[in-house]
């Protein structure tokens, strides 16, 4: 085994021994760099990486988007979205589950995190679906899957990290996420219909609402729509920059929370404490990943892998399929952020060298990461559902997710075959 | 099962009622709100008064670093560092606290090294008077603050692991 | 054989890399008869501002960067960043190197490294989305995007509103109307794809400002080379390297200017504008020279020598 192969092996051992990802990455990166440039320079680089990397204005969007999502969660907007969506789907079989998927998509447009989306929608949608006799495997799966859209439909915390690691424009990445996100919503609604057809359950159907009532039901969604239009429109029309959109969005979400009359000082303190902790935790993973990628950079790993691809024929689509396979396997065991931090620094130079657009690759990576959130054994969104309804076995949730994962694979195929669809809005 | 959400906050959990956590929440919360307010004032100032806030960029950068490092002791206290526990969950129960201790001590040691190096780096920056671009605020004190917060977080991590071992 | 690692934070296609750093590594190999080889790392090791310390601490053997990315650290740089110094990056860079050797080096700012070159970008001009370029108050209350360094103060002194943001965000700021214009060399306007965003330009005789760059080497690594190798490397760096870098910026500026043909109307600053701007910027020049002098150098003498050397080079 050569230098970097040993490094990767040690990293995997530490990770599976349960060492926090941030420090496992730092340890392997640091020791690797020491072995290449010596103790003193490597330690100096460590100090610089941890102190200089955070002093970057464009990184300020992370805590501000997190804060925006937390304000939106507290404002109770999710319930309004769900009510409105149901007005449009209640006359269909499995209408509540379809409404769940729609509401997840809408909520994703104001919240940058998948788990926050799933957790919020679970509290809103599960009680109704249980009341109407929906089988647990359908109700939990529709929420877990719908929640994954949180990191694809802008704003998205994961796209921000991707943009920073690959020096891609975050505004363009956000715009690129919209169409695949809408395809995701449509796909999950199809998955709901498939599940309903397969389950054989006789689900209740309500009479179709007149158009006027359906339109009236949208009234409660005004806050969310305004917030989304304000953030994305502000970027698109150039009122503020994508970097500024996070602060502006957080301000808008706070205003929304105050208008919803759910504001409390204690609630505010909770939001701030949570945002602070998540920020610290995520940034330390980022710094660890940067330390590790310095090792990758110095060890010649990228060059080795590129040389390997060239000797092996170097078909660019073959490269993408191999990367897809790697992500599907890693996605079984890693959670989303760590997976992206581990793989993107290594893979993006290779993908760029093959002539792929890095904005497109970002969307590809996020969609395969969405799949990782709902595949066993480690599927974070399934775990979220499990923690909201502890009486449902995790196996039931994963079984319910099978049609959703299948539809997701179709979506990945669409993204690979029609890259223009992703880049259309950018 | 990992309780933390790496791609962010589930519904925020109530802040535990310990003084230390509340102080951290208040200090970092103020900085987060200030970052938000700076952006809003900068954008509004630009349109309404044709006058953006001088130094908004560098103040935001410094507060971001402040939030990252001051948030770290809270992450350590609440054991919110993300780890892969798919294999470790299957280990026999008596091993768990020992494995936890080993991993925590190793992590705390690395965090200690990081803090030590930031401290030295801050000294280097102080030696040549490194400052921010527009407001000319000195950068070194921020480095000393980060190093201190990192060291505190390292101690918390080790202490929490030892406490769990005693249980 | 000794191998030197070169840290790079720019894309490989950037002319500073492809036309200065890469040729420099080739010249070092050639001059030393292949006994010293320099290889460029494939990805950045950290943000641009960290690169001087990378050379100090031996993280990489050779690094390059902009002094202005470390505010407060390089006070002598003020001498070369002043307005109205010269038209050609080559002239300014060669003169700057000579002045640096004589007057600026003793300040000790570079004592922790071996300096391979200091040089300057081409002069900064004014670019606007609209407005009458001949009006003396053309910049009054206009929002002008600025980066670091002296530009912020130059723009303020001319009555404009500085909008801060990194150069990578310049397109964003202009296209979204956050900024009405920018002060940049021709090269950077083209490089950051800002031409479609801008309509008029004012070419200021001597330029409104310059940007100073460094290429430095880790001291211990330098000391580990033989005296013969050191002499061989000295023969292709220093003034020769500063000249090569200046020529590159001049070529890039010319290419940028050619690209603007028919898209941006470039007009020279009028007599009235120059009179007004000279007066407005004099206090800034005095303050910057005083700041340079606080590093323990004779800033006036350095400034005079710089002007004389630039004139001598330009006369060639
Ligand atoms: Na989202
Ligand atoms: Na998974």
From TrEMBL, chain A:
Its main location: membrane. It is a multi-pass membrane protein. The keyword Transcription regulation does not apply. NCBIfam families: dctM. GO terms for molecular function: transmembrane transporter activity. The chain crosses the membrane at residues 58-77, 97-126, 138-164, 170-196, 217-239, 245-263, 275-296, 316-337, 358-380, 400-425. Part of the tripartite ATP-independent periplasmic (TRAP) transport system. One of its GO terms (cellular component) is plasma membrane. This is TRAP transporter large permease protein. Residues 9-420 form the TRAP C4-dicarboxylate transport system permease DctM subunit domain. Belongs to the TRAP transporter large permease family. Pfam families: DctM (PF06808). Keywords: Cell inner membrane, Cell membrane, Membrane, Transmembrane, Transmembrane helix, Transport. The complex comprises the extracytoplasmic solute receptor protein and the two transmembrane proteins. It comes from Paenirhodobacter populi. It is found in: Cell inner membrane.
UniProtKB/TrEMBL annotation, chain B:
It is a multi-pass membrane protein. GO terms for biological process: C4-dicarboxylate transport. One of its GO terms (cellular component) is plasma membrane. InterPro entries: DctQ, TRAP_DctQ. GO terms for molecular function: transmembrane transporter activity. The chain crosses the membrane at residues 23-47, 59-77, 98-122, 142-162. Keywords: Cell inner membrane, Cell membrane, Membrane, Transmembrane, Transmembrane helix, Transport. Residues 35-167 form the Tripartite ATP-independent periplasmic transporters DctQ component domain. It is found in: Cell inner membrane. It holds the Pfam family DctQ. Belongs to the TRAP transporter small permease family. The complex comprises the extracytoplasmic solute receptor protein and the two transmembrane proteins. Part of the tripartite ATP-independent periplasmic (TRAP) transport system. This is TRAP transporter small permease protein. It comes from Paenirhodobacter populi.
């Amino acid at each position: 085994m050569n230098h970097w192969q040993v490094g990767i092996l040690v990293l995997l051992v530490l990770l599976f021994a349960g060492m926090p990802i941030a420090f496992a990455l730092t340890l392997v990166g640091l020791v690797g760099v020491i072995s290449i440039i010596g103790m003193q320079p490597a330690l100096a680089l460590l100090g610089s990486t941890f102190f200089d990397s955070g002093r970057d204005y464009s990184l300020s969007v992370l805590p501000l988007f997190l804060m925006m999502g937390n304000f939106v969660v507290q404002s109770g907007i999710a319930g309004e979205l769900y009510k409105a969506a149901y007005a449009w789907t209640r006359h269909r079989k499995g209408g509540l589950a379809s409404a769940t998927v729609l509401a997840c998509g809408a909520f994703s447009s104001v919240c940058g995190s998948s788990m926050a989306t799933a957790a919020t929608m679970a509290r809103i949608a599960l009680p109704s679906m249980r009341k109407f006799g929906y089988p647990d495997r359908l109700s939990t799966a529709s929420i877990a899957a719908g929640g994954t859209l949180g990191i694809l439909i802008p704003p998205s915390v994961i796209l921000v990290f991707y943009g920073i690691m690959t020096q891609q424009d975050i505004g363009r990445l956000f715009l690129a996420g919209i169409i695949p996100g809408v395809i995701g919503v449509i796909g999950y609604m199809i998955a709901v219909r498939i599940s309903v057809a397969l389950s054989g359950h006789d689900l209740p159907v309500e009479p179709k609402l007149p158009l006027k009532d359906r339109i009236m039901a949208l009234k409660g969604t005004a806050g969310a729509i305004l917030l989304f239009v304000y953030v994305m429109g502000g970027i698109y029309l150039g009122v503020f920059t994508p970097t500024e959109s996070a602060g502006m969005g957080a301000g808008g979400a706070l205003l929304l929370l105050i208008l919803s009359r759910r504001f409390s000082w204690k609630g505010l303190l909770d939001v701030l404490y949570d945002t602070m902790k998540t920020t610290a935790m995520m940034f330390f993973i980022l710094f660890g990943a940067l330390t590790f990628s310095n090792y990758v950079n110095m060890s010649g790993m990228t060059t080795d892998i590129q040389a390997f691809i060239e000797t092996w024929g170097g078909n660019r689509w073959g490269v993408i399929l191999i990367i897809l396979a790697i992500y599907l396997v890693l996605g079984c065991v890693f959670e989303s952020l760590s997976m992206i931090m581990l793989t993107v620094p290594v893979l993006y130079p290779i993908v760029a060298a093959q002539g792929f657009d890095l904005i497109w690759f970002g969307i590809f990576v996020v969609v395969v990461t969405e799949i990782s959130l709902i595949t066993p054994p480690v599927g974070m969104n399934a775990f979220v559902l499990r923690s909201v309804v502890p009486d449902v076995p995790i196996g039931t949730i994963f079984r319910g997710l099978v049609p959703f994962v299948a539809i997701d694979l179709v979506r990945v195929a669409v993204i690979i075959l029609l890259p223009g669809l992703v880049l259309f809005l950018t | 099962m990992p309780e933390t959400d790496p791609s962010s906050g589930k519904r925020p959990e109530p802040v535990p009622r310990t003084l230390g956590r509340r102080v951290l929440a208040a200090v970092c919360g103020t900085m987060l709100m200030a970052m938000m307010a700076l952006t809003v004032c900068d954008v509004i100032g630009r349109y309404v008064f044709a006058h953006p806030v001088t130094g908004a960029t560098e103040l935001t950068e410094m507060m971001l670093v402040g939030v990252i490092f001051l948030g770290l002791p809270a992450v350590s206290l609440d054991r919110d560092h993300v780890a892969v526990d798919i294999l470790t969950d299957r280990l026999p129960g008596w091993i768990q606290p020992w494995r936890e201790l080993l991993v925590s001590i190793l992590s705390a040691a690395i965090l200690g090294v990081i803090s030590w190096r930031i401290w030295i780096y801050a000294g280097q920056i102080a030696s040549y008077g490194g400052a921010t671009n527009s407001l000319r605020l000195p950068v070194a004190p921020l480095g000393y603050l980060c190093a201190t917060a990192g060291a505190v977080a390292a101690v918390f991590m080790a202490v929490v692991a030892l406490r769990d071992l005693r249980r | 054989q000794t191998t030197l690692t070169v840290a790079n934070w720019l894309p490989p296609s950037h002319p500073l890399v492809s036309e200065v750093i890469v040729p420099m590594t080739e010249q070092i190999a050639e001059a030393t008869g292949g006994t010293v080889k320099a290889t460029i790392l494939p990805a950045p090791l950290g943000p641009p501002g960290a690169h001087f310390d990378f050379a100090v601490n031996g993280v990489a053997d050779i690094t390059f960067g902009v002094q202005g990315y470390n505010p407060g650290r390089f006070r002598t740089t003020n001498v070369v960043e002043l307005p109205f110094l010269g038209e050609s990056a080559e002239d300014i860079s060669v003169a700057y190197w000579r002045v640096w050797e004589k007057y600026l080096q003793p300040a000790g700012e570079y004592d922790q490294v071996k300096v391979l070159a200091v040089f300057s970008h081409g002069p900064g001009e004014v670019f606007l989305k609209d407005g009458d370029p001949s009006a003396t108050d053309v910049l009054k209350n206009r929002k002008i995007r600025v980066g670091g360094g002296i530009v912020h103060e130059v723009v303020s002194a001319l009555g404009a509103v500085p909008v801060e943001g990194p150069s990578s965000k310049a397109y964003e700021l202009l296209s979204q109307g956050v900024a009405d214009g920018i002060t940049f060399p021709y090269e950077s306007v083209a490089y950051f794809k800002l031409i479609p965003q801008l309509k008029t330009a004012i070419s200021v005789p001597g330029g409104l400002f310059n940007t100073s760059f460094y290429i430095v080497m880790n001291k211990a690594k330098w000391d580990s080379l033989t005296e013969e190798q050191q002499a061989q490397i000295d023969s292709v760096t220093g003034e020769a390297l500063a000249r090569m870098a200046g020529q590159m910026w001049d070529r890039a500026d010319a290419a940028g200017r050619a690209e603007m043909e028919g898209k941006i109307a470039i007009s020279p600053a009028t007599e009235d504008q120059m009179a007004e701007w000279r007066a407005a910027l004099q206090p800034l020049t005095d303050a910057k020279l005083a700041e340079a002098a606080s590093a323990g150098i004779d800033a006036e003498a350095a400034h005079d020598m710089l002007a004389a050397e630039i004139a001598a080079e330009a006369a060639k």
